[in-house]
Amino acid sequence: MGVYEDLGLTPIINASGSVTRLGGAPMSREVLEAMTDAASESVPIEALQAKACTEIASFTGTEAGIVSAGAASALTLGAAAIMTGWDRGRMESLPQTDAFPNEFVVAREQRSGYDHAVRAAGARLVEVGFNEIVPGAGVRRTEAWEYEAAFGPNTVGVLYVFTPDSEPPLAEVVARAHMHNLPVLVDAAAELPPRSNLIDIPATGADLVAFSGGKSIRGPQSTGILAGRRELVGPAFAQLVDMDDHPALWDPPKELVDIERFEGGPPRHGVGRAHKVSKEEIVGLLTALRLFSAGAYDEEVAGYRPRLERIAGALESAPVTCTLHDRGDGESFPLLDISIDESAVGKTAFEVCESLRKGSPPIYAGHGKLAQGTLIVNPLHLDDASAGALAQRVREELGAS
Ligand SMILES: *Cc1c(COP(=O)(O)O)cnc(C)c1O
To answer: Hey, what CATH topology would domain 29-293 get?
Structure first.
């Protein structure tokens, strides 16, 4: 019996990848061992975050970095830092921000549920541009001048969500923002791989960049990275860490904080105190970041395509069309689309997806294309046995067994 069976739970086959609701990415043995070692002794968390700062800075080409409680946490901490700087009074008042600039300009087409993390710090989002391609009412994307036109006395920064086809390009938005001395906070949570993005996204001049630690880096699920300018990472750090030290003994790490900035004593617990990160998680994330940056997962990734091809092969006689999507860059995961001939099967892809979840073993396929009659198979958590079980269950559901 495993720990989940002891709790009366049945482990599932995860064909959805590193999604949070299914527990994130698989951690390597090195990461788990490092976390076990980290648990056996105590160190000051601030000193550990200072070591993380140096490592993250070197892996991202930035001045500074901290380990946050996920990319969403990094967005809250980053937004907080941009609004407060080193001002203890402002730090104390978050998320109340009426008394100082609190507006982040964001492209309307880049809004998502994740920007709640920015608003949680007390920021207001001011939208620019339209989302006219989705309703079919036009063809133009957001344009850089629209950001500039929205800047005003209450503007404190820009929020930008990075994807390979985000428009306008990040570098253009950074240039416009910097002309007005406004910082740019980037959500790049899921933009690894390619691992070159660790360097390339900050290299646009963006002031703060958030990456997930629990996606392709394969660190602890509840970790993230906030990297960028020390002048902003420092205040983010000060609003994350536990402040219940003796004010006269508090000795923050020089990598992150110039103590003169807090003349008169340290700030109190900040808005990020609820985002605390454990020593085990910090060590786990750093270990995973080293592995990811060194290409340690590439060999495993090379085995994903043949495994997905075997699933497609096992479905050859079933009423489906299988399509493999593979960027072929040696880092990104291939994905398998299983498009169901719904009229031949007499079931919709939604019904098949639901039956797979409720069946034995429970299987969670990617649900992003159900409306188009398609199940998506993400190979990150699959081995030969679970891939075989998945193919078998899909055949059964399609009456092809
Ligand atoms: C996954 C994701 C997040 C949240 O990342 P966590 O590390 O789970 O907090 C934020 N933004 C985008 C675009 C994401 O894909």
So the answer is: Aspartate Aminotransferase; domain 2 (3.40.640)
